[in-house]
Amino acid sequence: MAIRYGIQADSEAECAQALTELCEQLGLVPRMLPKLLTDNRWMARAVPAPRRTDETAGR
Questions:
Q1: How far apart are CA 27 and CA 15, in angstroms?
Q2: How far is Cα 10 from Cα 12, in angstroms, rounded to an integer?
Q3: Is the pTM of this model over 0.85?
Q4: Phi and psi (nearest 5°) for 14?
Q5: CA distance 25 to 8
Q6: Per-residue CA distances from 38 to 1, 41, 51, 57, 58 (Å)
Q7: Which residue in 4, 10, 46, 54 is deepest, having the highest Cβ count within 10 Å?
């Protein structure tokens, strides 16, 4: 099951600010940058950062 965090806002700037704060505070990575939807609202998504394993840490 995938974990996703969604943001809805009235403006692109508000959506981008919320996405930035969410990523900084929870250690998430953006998955969908702010996008204008058909009903004149903005949406963005973030997901947890991938975990590094011992195998990928040396690469």
A1: 17
A2: 7
A3: no
A4: -65, -40
A5: 18
A6: 27, 7, 35, 42, 44
A7: 46
